[in-house]
Structure formats: structure tokens, C-alpha cells
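cron nightly-structures :: item 1 of 1
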Amino acid sequence: MSPSRVLVLNSGSSSVKYQLLDMHGGGRLATGLVERIGEQTSRLKHTCLVGGGSREQNGPIADHEAALKAVAEELAKDGLGLDSPELAAIGHRVVHGGMFFTEPTVIDDAVLTEIERLIPVAPLHNPANLTGIRTAQALRPDLPQVAVFDTAFHTTMPEAAARYAIDPKIADRHRVRRYGFHGTSHAYVSRETARLLGKSPEEVNVIVLHLGNGASAAAVRGGRCVDTSMGMTPLEGLVMGTRSGDLDPAVIFHLARVGGMSMDEIDTLLNKGSGLFGLCGDNDMREIRRRIDEGDEQAKLAFDIYIHRLKKYIGAYYAVLGRVDAVTFTAGVGENAAPVREAALAGLDALGLAVDPAANAVRADGPRLISPAGARVAVAVVPTDEELEIAEQTYALVESKPGSNPGPAGE
């Protein structure tokens, strides 16, 4: 039997999340997180899901190379080391693939060069992704390394949805267009929604609402994305934990000219000091709901702004799709915050959208419907699984083209 394990790496600027999966039905074998890389207070939390239990180590981890070596050591303690002949590939989450990458891609020098070229449109994410890739290559140079791009699922958007209304020559020169993000989540969840409805993805139109600290909506027609809320960067769209989402661009000019703020200060404000956190000082929906229950008006206003924006996108994507078979909530808030789901669809009965209060209140791990029986449009909660999606795409690629390198998809 051919090697069946895939290690999935999600390398952030100061963290590495990882999962080891067996693609021949063995499920997850191990999961873990290395955080605060480069600090004295670094932490590695590792869990072996085949009898090894959980372990944690605290202390300085200098860089991503040291982090991945520590991960390899933890896996080896459980007999799951990177030197295992059962390891088929390493799959890497890469946030931005631009228009160059439309599908998972075996990594070579040309792929690395293009990911590097995209750093100006993903300065917070692509450098960290590159570091993780290069470190993994050094540890296992003989093993296929596959990049799975957050943006790839959204490359099916028509130009009318992907283009901003600015001079195309300037836009093309500087790669200014709407790329979208959370693509692995939207792909997985839209497909699982179709399965929940007993249909194939090609038969179903779905509005997917990925609501976590980062949040995005996607309109998916027959398994293909036709619009999404995030744009050239993850800043556009819904109100998020710390990001503003949609904003009149002139606000930036105003803050610079009248407020005397630098571009870096405005960037920090909109990405890290806005959204729910900027509105009420909290970006945890559980805490916001607790404050609302205690009569906190600032928390209530933040929640209302969040819901207002979310409802606008649901209506807009209903119009884009024309026919909607399901609206699906996913990610931390979408899966767990029943008041958000209820409020987002309140008053949309004329569109066939409603939640059953009893079904909505149930906490469950698996995919489920929360719409009333016989509803014209299904409302679903589907837990996302980006790591499984990355692993499946990685394994399918290396199995279909053993020993080959398909390279980038082309401009």
C-alpha cells in the first residue's frame, strides 16, 4: 500500500498549527500548535490521537526552523515522525495565490518565487507561509510539498465580481482586484452542505457564512464561487473581530489629512483596532453577549452593527445567486453563537429564510439543519475543517501525479 499520511502545516508570523492525517481512513493521528515563536514564552502543545495523550512544552523557540524541529520530535515520540515511510506529503496553507494559482500545486523554485512576488498584497501572511515551506523542505527535501491556497476557490468569480471600478491598466499593474480568502473553508463547507441536503454540489446554490475572528461570506453556485466578501486583502467585507470590513475609502484620506495619522497607524487601526474590538473593546462574541444580557449599550450597538452588515451580505448574495438552496453558518461564531444565527435571519421570512428556535439552540458537533421543517431555503450549521480540506487536496494531487510537478497554473 502506498504512503497514506499527510502532514498539514499552517505557518503564521509567530505560530505553526499542524495536523497529521491518515488518508486511508485512519483519520487524525496528531494535532498541535506552536505559538509565540521568537519569544521567551514560546509554547508547544501537542496531542496524539492514537493513544499518546497531550503534552506541552514551554520555553524559548527561536524561529520556525526550531519550531518545526520541535514538532518533528514530538511526532517521533509517538512513532509518527517526519522520517516515516508512511508520510506521503506535506500540505501547506498559503494565504495568497493571486490569479497565478487556481488549484493545489506541488512546490518548486518557480512556485516559491511567485508566492514571494505576492508578498506586497499579503505582507502579513505569505512571508510566514514561505518560512514554513522552506523549513519543511529542509527537513524532508525528498518529500512532495504542496501549497493549497486560500484564494484558489475564488478564482472562479466572474470579472464583474472580481474587478474594482478603477482604471484596469493601473489595477493590473499593481495586482489590484478582489481575490477573496477562507477559500478552503468555503469549498469544504459548501460541499458538505450539499451532502447534508442529499444532493451533489453541482445541484446546489449556497451562501456560506464563515464567521470567526476573521469573517467572510461567499456565494457558491453549483460548487463554484461567484462572489465573496473579502477583497484584495482580508480587510474588506463583514465586520470582524478586529477588522473594520467595508469602509468608505475616503475615511483613510480623512484620517491622514485631518487626523494626522500615518499610513501605518491607519493600517493598524483598521486591521487590529476596529471591528467588534474597536466598537466595544471585546472581540469575543461570548463576552459581548454576556455584556448585552447585563444591559451594556456599547456591546449591543457593536452586535447590531455586526448583524446589520451580515444581513446585508445575505440579501446581496441571495440577489446574486437568484435561487438559494441553503444558507450555512460555519467557523467559531457561526458554529456556536445561536443568537448570531437567529438575528442574522430575523425578518427574512419573505425570502424563505428562518431558523427553528429549538433546533438553533442545540449544541452539536456535526452538520445539522436548523431551519423549520419544510422551509423553502435550508439553514444549516456545518463545522468547517480546513485542515482536512488541505490534506485531501494535497493527497489527491500527489496520488494523481506521482513523481511529477504540475507547477503553477499560469496567469
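cron nightly-structures :: done
Residues 404-411 have pLDDT under 50 and may be disordered.
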